[in-house]
């Protein structure tokens, strides 16, 4: 284990349980920290952001930051929690039997929302981004699709595939497209990106 990893683990253990997340002061502090990390990551890239820079931008003592988050990566993942929740909801709302040439409205909304925050997604999902963020996004997409499939809203023709495998496959495909889309040099318009994904999801021969 590297020195950086050992320090991160030490900080993680030192901050765990030392703040009450329901305390209004804690919520205000974390809100300021989340805003600061998103601003800095957008301006400079996540790999260039330090805890010291976050503390300065949020006007919070550096030691206080460590009471809430063990490292920049954990803070960035938490800061994007609402965004991940929105992506998950939109994906779960898509009518999976919509015509191939008509990407459903929730999917269009998903790509529009991500496109509006393209820079931060590109930083978090790119080569120097956050593996933790990508894993959280993939896991939540998989869980949402599993829940939907279990409730009966599953495309026909996949009964011989376990629900968990099917959901993980689709979640990974969507995350891969989002990553490629947000990190490309010239951003394809959101409606076109959504249409491309939907055509892949609904290949020729589908309804």
Structure description:
The protein is mainly α and 207 residues long. Helices cover 69% and strands 0% of the residues. The protein has 11 helices and no strands. The protein has helices at 3-15, 24-44, 51-58, 62-68, 72-79, 81-93, 105-116, 118-125, 131-150, 163-183, 190-201. α6 runs antiparallel to α7, α6 (81-93) packs parallel to α9 and α9 crosses α10 (163-183). It is elongated. The model is unreliable at 12-17 (pLDDT under 50).
Question: Which key phrases capture this entry?
Answer:
single chain, 207 residues, mainly alpha, elongated
Spell out the blueprint of helices and strands:
Elements: H1 3-15, H2 24-44, H3 51-58, H4 62-68, H5 72-79, H6 81-93, H7 105-116, H8 118-125, H9 131-150, H10 163-183, H11 190-201
